[in-house]
Specification:
By secondary structure, the chain is of the alpha/beta class. It has 2 domains: 127 residues, Rossmann fold (3-Layer(aba) Sandwich); 132 residues, LpxI C-terminal catalytic domain (Cytidine Deaminase, domain 2, 3-Layer(aba) Sandwich), CATH 3.40.140. The chain contains 9 helices and 13 strands. The strands form 3 sheets. The protein has a 6-stranded mixed beta sheet with strand order 6-13-11-9-7-8. A 5-stranded parallel beta sheet has the order 3-2-1-4-5, with helices on both faces. Helix 7 runs parallel beside helix 8 and helix 8 packs parallel to helix 9. The longest helix is centred in the middle third of the chain and has 19 residues.
Length: 272
């Protein structure tokens, strides 16, 4: 029995396009819901799609139903705009109170509201790693460079700091150098964190980026993600490497990411 048409609610980055191409390769029909100012236009090339504003909730639900999408995946990041800047339709207005309360509690709470609303409308929400099983980082060293003892200590510190950060639903990543936390991820995202901490490094071996899933996080959206672009940012900033939570972090374009890491002498490792 053929799988039903998949609705891809597409944020920024390359993940929505990777899912679209994977479905295309399997012969599965899709509909991409793209958001103005957020979704990469390349995601929509050659595939059925609909461009919407962030507040067009009613139109989004109607589009998914008209396309007979029974399963939906949330893929890619969406920046958090001010609620006053979003033009909401009538259906969206019903959500505004819940969204406002969830926004104050953090990104995971906000995503949970979105997922609950989709499920209440009869859709089944699935994770990106359910569609592309090779996305999740394996345990161990990826590529030709492994962390040394000093880096291992920084990773251990980073894991504890990232868990504490995630427990507050603030962010998923921290930067550590020589046993000292240089910075934690905020609204600027991982790329912004790397850029900010680049100038804070002291002389000696470079810093380490650590990304972990938030405790109790909804797995079907916003899992920690890195890719080839992340590796380029780390190399430009003079970092030694990156440690991610094995089985809980998505690595986009893994072959390219490992190749970039080896090229720049940056380690990548999946940790428990």
């Amino acid at each position: 029995m053929a799988a039903s048409r998949l609705g891809i609610i597409a944020g920024g980055g390359s993940l929505p396009g990777l899912i679209a191409r994977a479905c295309e390769g399997e012969g599965r029909e899709i509909l991409v819901i793209a958001f103005e100012g957020e979704t990469d236009p390349a995601t929509c090339v050659g595939v059925p799609h609909r461009w919407l504003g962030l507040g067009a909730v009613g139109t989004l639900l109607k589009s998914l139903r008209q396309a007979d999408c029974r399963e939906v995946v949330l893929a890619g990041a969406i920046r958090r705009p001010s609620l006053s800047s979003i033009k909401v339709d009538l259906r969206g207005m019903r959500l505004m109170g819940r969204i406002a309360r969830a926004k104050a509690r953090g990104d995971d709470a906000l995503l949970s509201v979105v997922i609950e609303e989709l499920e209440a409308e009869g859709f089944t929400v699935i994770g990106a790693d359910d569609l592309i099983t090779t996305l999740c980082a394996p345990a161990g060293v990826l590529g030709g460079r492994a962390p040394d003892e000093d880096a291992e200590r920084d990773i251990a510190i980073g894991i504890e700091a990232a868990r504490a950060l995630g427990a507050q639903d603030i962010g998923q990543a921290v930067v550590v150098q020589a046993g000292r936390v240089l910075g934690v991820e905020g609204v600027e995202g991982t790329d912004g964190l790397i850029k900010r901490c680049a100038a804070l490094q002291e002389a000696g071996p470079g810093a380490v980026l650590v990304k972990m899933k938030k405790p109790g996080q909804e797995r079907r959206a916003d899992l920690p993600t890195i890719g080839a672009t992340t590796i380029e940012r780390l190399a430009e900033a003079g970092f030694r490497g990156v440690a991610v939570e094995a089985g809980e972090t998505l690595i986009l374009e893994r072959v390219q990411a490992i190749a970039r890491a080896d090229e720049h002498g940056v380690f990548m490792v999946g940790v428990s």
